[in-house]
Amino acid sequence: MSDLRLSLFGTPRLECDGAPVKLTRRKVTALLAYLAVTGQPHSREAVATLLWPDFDAPNAYAYLRNALWMLKQMPLADKIEAEQETLAFRQDETTWVDVTRFEAALAARRAHPHPERETCAACIPLLEEAVALYQGDFMAGFTLEDSAAFDEWQFFQAESLRRAYTGALEKLTLWYSPREPETALDYARRWQNCDPLHEGALRHLMTLYAQVDQRAAALHLYDTLIRDLRAQGLAPAEETVALYQRIRASDGARASHPREIVSVDQRSGVFFRYNLPTPSTAFVGRRAELAEVQRLLDDPETRLITLVGPGGIGKTRLSLRAAEAALAAFPDGVFFVPLAAVETPEMIVSTIADVLRLVLYQQSAAAPFAQLTHYLHDKRMLLVLDNLEQALSGAVLLADLVQQTRSLKLLVTSRERLNVQGEWVLELRGLRCPETADLPDVTDYGAVRLFIERAQRINHAFAPAAGDMAAIVRICRLVEGMPLGLELAAAWTKLLSCREIADEIAISLDFLSLALRDLPERHQSLRAVFTRSWGLLSKEEQAVYCALSVFRGGFTRAAAAAVSGASLPLLASLIDKSMLYRTAPDRYDILHVLRQYAGEQLAANPECNQAIHDRHSEYYLDWLRRLEPALKGPGKDVAFGQPAALEAIYTERENVHAAWSWAVARGKFEWLHAATLSLGLFCDIRSRFRESLELFGAVVAALDRPGVEARPALLGLLLGIQGESLLRLSQPGALETLQRATQVLDAAPPGPELALVNVLSSYAATWYSPEEVERRLNDSLAFYRAANDPWGVALTLGVIGESLHVFIRQNPEAARDYIQQSLDIRRQIGDLWGMAITLFTLAMLAEWGEAFVEARRYYQESLELRQMLKDTNGAAHCLLGVGRVAYRLGDWDTARHTMYQSLELLREIGAPHGTPDVLEALAQIAHDEGKLAEARDLLRESCGVRRGIQETGRPLAFTLLRLGNICRELGDTEAAREHLAESLAIFAQFDPEEWRERATAALQQVGAR
């Protein structure tokens, strides 16, 4: 059952399972909103009269039936209860309506046993929930011009909800004013923004600005109010004037200019994308810093913000909280990009692309950055780049990224500033610490609250007595409010008293006078925190923790046991001491700064360091080897199939890369050989072709070094996979690489490597005759059958059908027979990706045979499998196929829709090689609809793409011929003549007389110069 989210605050929008559902008809939207918000059955007569007042009853009922039919085509069909006389919207646990949730939160708050005007601590979460739901006025911008009754209902509904919203803002402002002025300030801004002339809200906001020492902002508010009131012939209330005078007097003689205030953005109606990790602990303190980051993010002139501070100071947590609060300002998404393992500018580009799910299909060293800037050029997006200090050489690259995009913003965390133009730096220090424990509000200080909150998470029974507060304050001051130091200290409250913890820190962590002088000293101070924590671990814990430092991106319990020998109780102990944290039910990780420290301890023992890295590399490469059956198709009795195997490799990709690199450097070619096919399948299915070239290319380079023992089976296999990746990317060298692969393997004893490379090279083996291609494929088929390898048999049968009988011999009947055999085997063994490939080929055969209904069914089946496996490149081509056959069946709307979906996917993953076919198919539809200018523009774009990827032969000639003919129809003789002449020149080099004659005839119609 689908999860539905109907949002009516702001522009109405509907989501199903997280994906937006278009609401294209205004009356349908109005009907849905009316039924959902009123929450009760309505007679059909009343609804028809409300929405179609200008029509007689029969026509109004007819329009109502049509609107209901449209609703039934949406994912919410089962939510509409259409009885014979009544209509209703059914809400259940799978349905979320923001207005309903808003009203429910406020109703729950009103049920508290105290007067309405009062507020208790239990009210606050409910009020905050309601305020967060209000993303704009009810159905903002929506109207029905022909239904005054509906517009009246909408108006009064909006006013009622707006009053409830401002009432909640007022209560939150009053509650937080004496406790957290910065939080109160945020609510007061929103309250005053709802009604700029509401002097009560304005006075609260002015008072709060003065309270946080922003008097200029308070005075500026008053000046704005005076201007607005005078425009309406009004004067301010006496209380407002008096408050202004008090604030002005308290400002002394300082000559301050009002600082421009950016109000909170109340836009709505945008579906937000984000990947912000959800912290497992509460965000404590940092109100002033958070407000400053939010101010910078709101400023359109500020594009690059760096949070600078030593490790463990809380840069990441602050950046995440600020990014979460800024979601509404970035309709194209807010994305967290971890850079802890990144060391070069090139890796920054690839890591950002990976987070954005952007596959880089470039053909030169400069291409990845160019592709990234092209993708981000018009995006209103925020990237949170975390832990950049490992790759500060990429600072200039980030500055260029900002300059070459229009609205992109970067929020960077680093131990050092970037020192580039346009950078705004916010230096983070420790959380606020009290001078003494005698202050009445000592627990309001961020450092104290953080220590207590973390201690209570470690030990639920922790309840500091009055005597403990002095020791807690001492701890906070010893570590200067450094969050990591506080968390590490709090971890020991299960074993030590607060006084004992303070004494221990004082012995080994005396850096208060040095911590803020320069970065190296601050780094050394943080090291002192780790050193003391390290000393409190047992010898066994230290040994295991050193070994755990080799993992990248987290690890499972099984991996930890295999590499480090960690037992479950020991892992639990490390978690208790905040040296380790759990990211999933069976996944663990270490803070990067702690991993660095542990890694240094491991490196101090070279023999142990090598042994641990060997175990890590062997474990993950053998793990890849063991996944090979699941990646090929586990059969019906194995639950762990291709989708799960692919996700597992994706989750462990950082460990896999580290293991692979270590094995290459150490010459562990047996391990690499065993893992090659699994990794190759993963890269192929997930369209990670550039990654494939880099990983396998490193092994080829190592094998080609002088003095390295010849390993023809491994070398040939690697070259074959490389050649296929080059083909997928249309990069030069593909044919030569495949040819070398077959030559290397031909000279070696027959084996599975030659069988596979024969299959891979058949698509492009232009150096072979058709008879030689057939012989090699038959050899592969015989090998796989003798080895009882159904995956290999199915693979080879499919390629024999497609490569040999479709493209070489053009025998569709023979092709269909081989491909069907392949499909049958793949269904039997559960090879979902292989099924998707054979279904796609069957779809092409059916389409060429003009069996369009059959072709559509095959394309749809293939598409569903590609989407399940997250094969974006394959899904894009399936969508194009669906669009082509829909066009041939006369369903032009579906054709256009699916083709644009295909184009969007191809552009998203950066695959220019498939876009010309889509653009030209769309151009055909536009031409048939008489939209000649649109068709011309699409063909021009296609020509540009073809030239960009150096497709300057027949494909470009055909596109130019069509473009020239359309320009002629538009009356643009000069452009038509130019395109047709170029087309004729290309056809003259490649094609038979028929196409030269067509181009010549077209050119004659416009008159050759």
Structure description:
This protein is mostly helical and 1009 residues long.
Features:
1009 residues, mainly alpha, 44 helices
In total, how many beta strands? 14
**Content-based structural category:** mainly alpha
The residue ranges in which pLDDT falls below 50 over 5 or more consecutive positions are 251-271, 508-526
Number of separate helices: 44
The biggest beta sheet is recorded as: 5 strands, parallel
Q: What is the rounded Rg?
A: 33 Å
Q: What value does the average pLDDT take? A: 82
Helix content: 55-70%
> What topology, given as strand order, has the largest sheet?
9-10-11-8-12
State the separation between the terminal residues, measured CA to CA.
Answer: 66 Å
Strand content: 5-15%
Shape: globular
Briefly characterize the structure.
With 1009 residues, this protein is mostly helical.
What is the secondary structure topology, with strand pairs?
Elements (H helix, E strand, L loop, with lengths): L3 E4 L5 E4 L2 E3 L4 H13 L3 E2 H8 L5 H16 L7 E3 L3 E4 L5 E3 H13 L12 H11 L14 H29 L4 H14 L4 H13 L3 H17 L6 H13 L36 H12 L5 E5 L6 H11 L8 E5 L6 H11 L11 H10 L5 E5 L8 H9 L5 E6 L8 E5 L18 H13 L7 H13 L4 H8 L7 H11 L10 H17 L3 H10 L8 H8 L3 H9 L4 E4 L2 E3 L2 H12 L2 H27 L9 H10 L1 H14 L2 H17 L3 H15 L8 H18 L4 H13 L5 H10 L8 H17 L3 H19 L3 H18 L2 H17 L3 H18 L2 H17 L3 H17 L6 H14 L3 H17 L5 H16 L3 H18 L2 H14 L3
Parallel strand pairs: 1-7, 8-11, 8-12, 9-10, 10-11
Antiparallel strand pairs: 1-2, 2-3, 4-6, 5-6, 13-14
